[in-house]
């Protein structure tokens, strides 16, 4: 059984992440969305909020597209990804590639992960064209300025972003 581990900070999860997740789920036996606890990034959402939005996002995408999510799970990890993945049977790391600009850092990270653990390979999935301009950071920036991002994130993510930037419940 091959397990695809898809690491990230998911702050918050977007349709770009979900598109990669479900494509990976059709290629591998199991997909684990691995939420990085010790990310050096300053996050907008707490770990618990990000977990909750990831759960909601997976269930929503599955229902909307009528694709099973039975082989998709969420986990948290601390420390080195190369160590964390060894918990799983035949692990591979999944990453999404949007543009050439993603390539350089992803290339470095994939080689470093293999340097830490030579048994672990990284598989890159090319972003779907419709989400290739989408990132969590850009969504947060648009939300901060009350722009249009409704179709880029699941409904609960949209509501939570709206609440964060409007200081009230939707
Ligand atoms: P990180 O903190 O590691 O950058 P992110 O949550 O920002 O984590 O992203 C996790 C992974 O998802 C990365 O491989 C990133 O390239 C990929 N990704 C993010 N947005 C998209 C998108 N719109 N389409 C495809 N892949 C994406």
In short:
The chain is built from 6 helices and 5 strands. It has 170 residues and is of the alpha/beta class.
Provide a descriptive summary of the structure in words:
The protein has 170 residues and is of the alpha/beta class. The protein has a single domain (3-166), classed as Rossmann fold, CATH 3.40.50. The chain has helices spanning 15-27, 47-65, 81-84, 100-116, 136-144, 155-166, and strands spanning 3-8, 30-36, 72-77, 91-97, 121-126. Strands 3-2-1-4-5 form a 5-stranded parallel β-sheet, sandwiched between helices. Helix 1 (15-27) links the parallel strand 1 (3-8) and strand 2 (30-36). The chain is globular, with a radius of gyration of 16 Å. The mean pLDDT is 95. Adenosine-5'-diphosphate binds at residues 8-10, 14, 16-17, 20, 39, 41, 95-96, 98, 102, 127, 131, 134-136.
The H-level CATH homologous superfamily, spelled out, is HUPs
Annotated CATH architecture: 3-Layer(aba) Sandwich
Terminal-residue CA separation: 43 Å
Largest pleated sheet = 5 strands, parallel
